[in-house]
Amino acid sequence: MSEQTHTDADAIEYDETIELLQDLVRIRSPYFEEEAIVEFVYEWLDDAGLDPEYQPVREPDITGYEGDNVLARLEGSDPDAPTLLLNAHVDTVQLVEEWDEDPLSGRVEDGKCYGQGACDMKGGLAAVLVAFRALADADLRGDVILSAVVDEEGPYGLGANQLIRDGITDECDAAIVTEPGPILAQSELENPALLLGARGRFLYDVTVRGHAAHGSQPEKGRNAVVDAGTLAGALAEMDVGTHPKLGDGSVCPLSIEGGGETLSVPEACRLLVDRHVVIGEDAESVLADAERVVADLDLDSDVEIGFREAPAPDVRYGPYVTDEDHPLVRSLTASAESVTGQAPAIGYFSSVGDFNYFGHRAGLPTVIVGPDGENIHGAGEFVYTDEVVDVARILVDATTAFAG
């Protein structure tokens, strides 16, 4: 990497950035319904002369989903210099009903922008867009690729998965994802913060098969719902892995579905259980853990344990950690201190997202750095507007250092 140079991060204008944020928040974009915001992002980049392109995202077998990512590239002068991926997702969760105002208001008050998805992650999306436009005027040696992806909040992260399927990540040497890090960190953090890894996730899909009988004579049957409840409790208490940086794994039963006859012992039941994992735990060990729990319980019902259906065997969220001494981390550390006047905290994400696909599946050194807020996925969600601008400036400064 060449001697660090900088563009003027102060060229990121506060008012313009927040106006863009408000425009993004006002576009309804739950996962699988992102067409309007995808078109907005494409046209914004096109109006800036940044030559965006649509990347088709298709998953016909399970969800029937059809959508598009938006990609753009800044070409550097040196093919041997590192290529950096700047990633943000465009979708939100479904709008929740508890809002006492328009959930897409984009209202700004007391340094906060309100709206569903304002923090997760239209603040990070706005930061990526204005930073990428500013970087177009930088003297870059390496390439910078922007990816605005769909379906991060959905079941499979299909947008990020498509980047891997189409070989986009093969061209990259590192990635920055502008998710709101501190709010979902393993420990209490405040921005500036760099999150250098995340736990992974499996979803147990368990079938419990009992024996039907008349509900007035339950002793003549095997109650699949009762055994599923017993199993859910035991799985919730099972031993999990631990990691010095990622912390402990976790288990959370999510749903039990079965029975329903008016007066019959339930003969079958389905149990879904979340399992967050750390480095050292894989599909084989996670499955074996659950099978041991079942064996120890010695239930009357028959139990089959597998994982949730996925578009392909590798479409899973694996855990990862990025080295604190990686050049990208060093660049972001220096830039965060330069922009905010504070050395960034180092932390690790407690849940999963597109960054797992980049950090684990694609093997890219991946850092989460994004604006923080509160109430993500709920009513009253907001993002701190100052932090949106700070993140944009950090991205400009750090990208120029890393790829400049």
Automatic annotation (TrEMBL):
Keywords: Hydrolase, Metal-binding, Zinc. GO terms for molecular function: hydrolase activity; metal ion binding. Residues 197-297 form the Peptidase M20 dimerisation domain. Its cofactor is Zn(2+). InterPro entries: ArgE/DapE_CS, Bact_exopeptidase_dim_dom, Peptidase_M20, Peptidase_M20_dimer, Peptidase_M20A. SUPFAM superfamilies: Bacterial exopeptidase dimerisation domain, Zn-dependent exopeptidases. Belongs to the peptidase M20A family. PANTHER family: ACETYLORNITHINE DEACETYLASE, PEPTIDASE M20 DIMERISATION DOMAIN-CONTAINING PROTEIN. This is M20 family metallopeptidase. It comes from Halosolutus amylolyticus.
